[in-house]
């Protein structure tokens, strides 16, 4: 969506913003991905309890909706630093079921990802047609920019994105254009993109590609109504696939696609939602999920009319789309996804009852978030109108009324065609949202309503005016909140839900931060006796923080911790079992690994080959995994069971000199704004040293050798500027030009023999660098990262 349009919308909004907005800011690679969200319980007034809204900040169009690697990914236009449109980012949330959403860190960020990060689409490249896949996960490929299209890819399930070809536009469009969206054309084994452009008027340019990277202009579908955010998808009708083309306003046409051209014999568009379908209204810029299970087509849209003191905008509840025939041609149906069932609480039902102006069947029910379904029999009905007054009060007022007017033939003021002699309604009532469905999904309307959640305003009144109507059946179901079921920033293999025993545990960019006056535990549902358990720990202000295991629900069990007093300690309540003296610095991240075998407990520090603690204790044979913080604040990350992680060479504990060094199940990851080193205790002169390196985002990563305790020595690195470089402080010794793609893994091998230093890339037969330098004769062996994030794995030294 363009800035001019969004700002005009803001000028038309009269609701007061409760807190001042600050200008949006662009980040940089060392701080990516950012998580700039204050903690929330999602219980604020008007905050939807089962409609997604950003944890804070402004949101608008859904972007790049995909189902990838077991999760639904909802990306969206986002200003995380204010409550108004400004400097678009791509926000990110994930869900296992389209209902329980978890805020994740920023996906695309200006300053890190080039171009104008406006609305776009995304796909899952399961067949790796792009060749962008680098690991075991299916790549998520997304498209953005304006007046042309750039490509971005994630190989870690949305945790980070890299710009393909440095962000250069893979499609150049001379006219004003934006909002690319991509779909797989199964019949012709190709990708198809639609892009809104102003080539003398509104319309969608259509491109095709075999690989998501090389695009060919195919045709253009011009239509005055087709403004912004086109979506193109396939729906079956009577067993035959039909192509549906939509615009940001929810208008659509149904037709055919021959691999190049979209055609329809009914060019007059229909509307799939009767809300206010303009930017900032209650239904705009809807998009469908790519790769949804079972071939379903699931849609979500932006509702701009919802706001609170820390967020602006929300998404409609996801619906499954269908297509039915009618005398007026095929029509789209919209039906809430079945995952809503997971929120159902108490239910009441009614059958075969007469509704009048005096007998409110829903009397006595107080509810805040709920669903109502009802069927009314029009035969013999004498009431002029009937329906539901929602969030009603004893004085007869209500926050919103859903009325069927028999004479006008309207539902909620919109034209409505009853099905035979029956009127059915399905209402989803949330704190700031109301969605109305009828006619097997042919009628749908999304609205934003500031419902008063006070107990005195939670009544429901079923009414009839000017007569009576027979209620065939009705059901009221209370809906629970969908928030708070997963971790936003804590990467972990531990089963949820996790719970704390004291203090507070909140999401921060670096993981989960615990804060307590005494001991506080953060405990998972995962339990074991014998196991390998590891994680990253950082003391912020705390005295100590640790990995807890074999624990009860109150945290009583074993804990291996780092302590600012200068020790790594293994303890249980009332007893320090063993300790290892070593400097512990606040603000620095340490990796602990614990292995339990019967009564034997071993603890490793910072990837050292030998345990620093090897003790025996029989107090707790099994129990939960979790984390601990003591007297202050500390941050934990990558709480994982199993042997995965960093594979290196024989060494004592490694030492960090700058930056942050953490360990995922797949690799050692490093992050720094400048140069940072991670050094083993191995000292060598002549050596053969090799490993796998990736610049996830940013500038460079390398193998360091013959170095001092501060990292000063030689480094052979890969640099995203397009070089392999051998350097030492103050001098670039040799450079080899070659493309280095962010996110791709490269193998470097260094051989140092006296003054001669050779560097091989990707196991090539000949070195790409063969140089002579005499500055350093021997020193420590380690790693380097510069200006961003890097991943390292499989080091060997001989």
Sum up the overall morphology in one term: globular
State the low-pLDDT regions, or none: 2-20
| Mean pLDDT over the residues | 95
Helicity range: under 10%
What Rg do the Cα atoms give? 30 Å
The main sheet comes to: 12 strands, antiparallel
Q: How far is it from the N-terminal to the C-terminal residue, by CA? A: 56 Å
Structure description:
The two termini are 56 Å apart. The radius of gyration is 30 Å and the shape is globular. The protein is an all-beta fold and 798 residues long. Mean pLDDT is 95; it is low at 2-20. The relative contact order is 0.09. Strands 35, 36, 37, 38, 39, 40, 41, 42, 43, 44, 45 and 46 form a twelve-stranded antiparallel beta sheet that branches. Strand 30 (422-429) and strand 31 (433-438) form a beta hairpin. It has one helix and 58 strands.
Descriptors:
twelve-stranded antiparallel β-sheet; 58 strands; 798 residues; 1 helix; disordered N terminus
């Amino acid at each position: 969506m363009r800035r001019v349009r969004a700002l005009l919308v803001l000028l038309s909004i009269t609701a007061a913003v409760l807190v001042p907005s600050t200008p949006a800011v662009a980040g940089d690679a060392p701080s990516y991905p950012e998580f700039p969200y204050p903690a929330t319980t999602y219980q604020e007034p008007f905050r939807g309890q089962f409609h997604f809204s950003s944890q804070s900040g402004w949101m608008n169009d859904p972007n790049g909706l995909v189902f990838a690697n077991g999760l639904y990914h909802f990306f969206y236009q986002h200003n995380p630093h204010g409550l108004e449109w400004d400097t678009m980012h791509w926000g990110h949330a994930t869900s296992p079921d389209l209902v329980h959403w978890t805020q994740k860190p920023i996906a695309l960020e200006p300053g890190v990802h080039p171009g104008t990060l406006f609305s776009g689409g995304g796909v899952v490249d399961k067949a790796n047609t792009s060749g962008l896949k680098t690991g075991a996960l299916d790549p998520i490929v997304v498209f953005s920019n304006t007046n042309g299209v750039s490509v971005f890819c994630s190989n870690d399930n949305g945790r980070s994105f890299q710009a393909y070809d440095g962000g250069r536009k893979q499609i150049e469009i001379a006219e004003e254009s934006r909002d690319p969206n991509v779909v797989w054309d199964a019949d012709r084994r190709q990708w198809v993109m639609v892009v809104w452009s102003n080539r003398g008027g509104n319309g969608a340019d259509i491109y095709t590609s075999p690989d998501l990277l090389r695009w060919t202009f195919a045709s253009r579908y011009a239509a005055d109504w087709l403004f912004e955010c086109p979506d193109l998808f396939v729906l079956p009708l009577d067993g035959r696939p039909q192509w549906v083309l939509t615009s940001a306003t929810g208008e659509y046409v149904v037709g055919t696609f021959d691999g190049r051209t979209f055609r329809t014999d009914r060019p007059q568009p229909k509307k799939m939602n009767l809300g206010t379908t303009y930017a900032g209204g209650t239904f705009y810029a809807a998009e469908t999920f790519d790769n949804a299970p079972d071939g379903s087509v699931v849609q979500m849209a932006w509702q701009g009319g919802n706001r609170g003191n820390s967020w602006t905008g929300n998404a409609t509840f996801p619906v499954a789309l269908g297509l039915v025939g009618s005398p007026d041609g095929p029509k789209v149906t919209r039906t809430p996804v079945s995952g809503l069932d997971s929120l159902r609480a108490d239910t009441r039902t009614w059958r075969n009852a007469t509704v009048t102006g005096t007998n409110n069947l829903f009397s006595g029910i107080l509810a805040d978030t709920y669903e109502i379904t009802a069927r009314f029999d029009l035969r013999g009905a004498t009431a002029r109108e009937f329906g539901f007054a929602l969030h009603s009060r004893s004085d007869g007022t209500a926050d919103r009324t859903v009325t069927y007017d028999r004479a006008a033939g309207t539902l909620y003021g919109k034209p409505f065609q009853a099905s035979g002699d029956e009127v059915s309604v399905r209402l989803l009532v949330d704190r700031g949202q109301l969605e109305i469905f009828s006619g097997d999904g042919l009628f749908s309307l999304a609205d934003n309503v500031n419902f008063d959640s006070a107990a005195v305003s939670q009544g429901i009144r079923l009414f009839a005016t000017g007569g009576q109507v027979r209620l065939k059946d009705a059901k009221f179901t209370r809906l629970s909140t969908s928030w708070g079921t997963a971790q936003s920033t804590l990467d972990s293999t531990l089963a949820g839900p996790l719970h704390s025993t004291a203090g507070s545990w909140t999401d921060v960019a670096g993981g989960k931060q615990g804060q307590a006056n005494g001991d506080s535990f953060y405990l998972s549902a995962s339990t074991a006796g014998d196991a390998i358990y590891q994680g990253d720990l950082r003391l912020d202000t705390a005295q100590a923080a640790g990995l807890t295991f074999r624990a009860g629900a109150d945290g009583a069990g074993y804990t291996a911790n780092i302590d600012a007093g200068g020790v790594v300690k293994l303890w249980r309540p009332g007893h320090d079992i063993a300790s290892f003296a070593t400097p512990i610095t606040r603000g620095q991240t340490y990796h602990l690994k614990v292995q339990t075998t019967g009564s034997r407990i071993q603890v490793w520090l910072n990837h050292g080959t030998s345990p620093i603690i090897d003790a025996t204790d029989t107090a707790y044979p099994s129990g939960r995994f979790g984390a601990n913080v003591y007297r202050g604040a500390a941050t934990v990350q990558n709480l994982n069971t199993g042997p995965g992680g960093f594979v290196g060479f024989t060494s004592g504990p490694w030492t960090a000199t700058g930056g942050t060094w953490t360990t995922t199940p797949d690799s050692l990851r490093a992050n720094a704004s400048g140069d940072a080193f991670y050094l083993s205790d191995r000292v060598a002169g002549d050596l053969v040293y090799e490993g796998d390196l990736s610049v996830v985002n940013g500038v460079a990563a390398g193998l360091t050798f013959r170095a001092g305790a501060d990292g000063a020595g030689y480094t052979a690195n890969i640099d995203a500027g397009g070089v392999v470089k051998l350097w030492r402080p103050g001098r670039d010794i040799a450079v080899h030009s070659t493309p280095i793609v962010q996110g791709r893994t490269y193998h470097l091998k260094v051989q140092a023999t006296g003054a001669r230093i050779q560097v091989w890339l990707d196991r090539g037969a000949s070195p790409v660098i063969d140089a002579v330098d005499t500055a350093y004769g021997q020193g420590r062996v380690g790693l380097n990262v510069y200006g961003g994030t890097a991943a390292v794995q499989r080091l060997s030294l001989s």
